[in-house]
Amino acid sequence: MQISFHGAAGQVTGSCHLFEHAGRRILIDCGLFQGSHEADDENAGDFGFDPSDIDVLLLTHAHLDHCGRIPLLVKRGFRGEIISTAATRELARVVMLDSAHIQEEDAKHQARYQRQRGRKALPGLYGIPDALRAMDAFGRVARLDDPIDLGRDIRATFIEAGHILGSASVVVEAGTGRDTRRIVFSGDLGNGGRSVLPDPATPPEADYVVIESTYGDRAHRSFEASRTELIEAIRKIHDRGGNTIIPSFALERTQEILFVLSEAVRKKELPENLAVFLDSPMAISATEIFGRYPDAFQSQFRKTLAARDPFGLEGLQFTRGADESKAINRITSGAVIVAGSGMCTGGRAVHHLQRNLWREECGVIFVGYAAEGTLARRLVDGTQSVKIYGQTVAVKAEIFTINGFSAHADQAELLAWHSHTGRPKRTFVVHGDPDRGMTHLQKAIEAAGLAVSCPKMHESIHLD
């Protein structure tokens, strides 16, 4: 019995862990690397295992850094079964097809660039046909708290993670009787006490734990305080005649922001005719999917969903097409533009930043994690100018950071969740900034007298 780490090891993206027992190879997540200068090479590089050897892939949720390399896995020979919750399956289709489209466009751009220099064009990472073949690999649907037989005395149980719609932690049990070992993979754990999703479920006692550490070094503001701060920031920018840009993750964060704005307008905390643009085709599709899973939400949100559209705003406009998105640039005052991507590594948010960052009456509100090396992190850290599409843009707009909307648990929540696993033989800390969340969470767990380590990329560890 062994486990190896092929992503999110010493970094915050690219989650991919391999569990092996009795000749069965179980992969937990297969995500895209994002943000760093080495991300392209990491994504195109070797997985650290033969994809054709993998029997089952357990997908915790549909964020790109957890599912984004699945089409490449299929392209390189994976023929096993993918198991996820029903909502994750739907969202993963949207995310992987969107990623495949971006990969194809990037490949075309690079091909032109290489041809102009008389060089051979390199193939893209993967394309839409690979993403569609990946969807064909989805098999059984995981129901929360119901064990799934993976063969050879291995079982997997998905439990609520409270991170995004359909997200789950995965409990893997291998062996029989006294020889049974239990390994809990946290996936990404949600920030409790929010308005849309339930809190993460209590995990069982475990022999081994693999835990994320995105915010392992800090505490979040309360949701209510963050809600108030968001409304005040938007009102401030609106009153001085600027546009508000909210770079947001398409899954969960965007929907929560729309819900908060809808409630604020209903309560007259924001202007009734507030012009809000959801400028993200993926987020629009995800918002439509949300309505199909009412049982996945907090009880109060379910009541709202039954009574009215919780994301409905009189001034809300969905902009799917590129021309519609470009038309927003003609608006110089009063617009609230919610656009992807959350870390500004691409997408329409970057175009809107290019148009608005240099205007001191405007504002940019970050409501999620910004990894090292991303445009979002540079803005959060206070840079005076940035390069966008080769053009230097002065940063005159006011930058707001509101971390209470994070879909990730903070340090106290991570430690509380971990405490329910008892006294595991060893805990592996992954999915975090090595100088921030990862190191701090490791020290906090060590302080409780428990064995803990931060595995290195492709490190393989035997489990007793």
Could you provide a short overview of the structure?
This protein has helices spanning 39-44, 64-67, 70-75, 86-116, 128-136, 223-239, 253-266, 281-290, 299-307, 322-327, 348-356, 375-380, 411-419, 437-446, and strands at 2-5, 17-21, 24-28, 56-58, 81-84, 138-141, 148-151, 154-160, 168-174, 181-185, 208-212, 244-247, 275-279, 316-318, 335-339, 363-366, 385-388, 391-394, 398-401, 426-430, 452-453, 460-462. By secondary structure, it is of the alpha/beta class. The termini are close together.
Detailed description of the structure:
With 464 residues, the protein is an alpha/beta fold. The model has no long low-confidence stretch (mean pLDDT 93). Strand 3 (24-28), helix 1 (39-44) and strand 4 form a beta-alpha-beta unit. The protein has 14 helices and 22 strands. The strands form 4 sheets. Strands 6-5-4-3-2-1-22 form a 7-stranded mixed β-sheet.
Keywords, please?
single chain; 464 residues; alpha/beta; seven-stranded mixed beta sheet; 22 strands; globular
Got a strand count? 22
Which runs of at least 5 residues are low in confidence (pLDDT < 50)?
A: none
Into which percent range does the helicity of residues fall? 25-40%
Number of helices: 14
> Which radius of gyration do the C-alpha atoms yield?
22 Å
Q: DSSP strand (E) fraction? A: 15-25%
What is the global morphology?
globular
Question: What about the largest sheet?
Answer: 7 strands, mixed
| Amino- and carboxy-terminal Cα gap | 7 Å
The structure class reads alpha/beta
The overall pLDDT average reads 93
Q: Largest sheet, order of strands side by side? A: 6-5-4-3-2-1-22
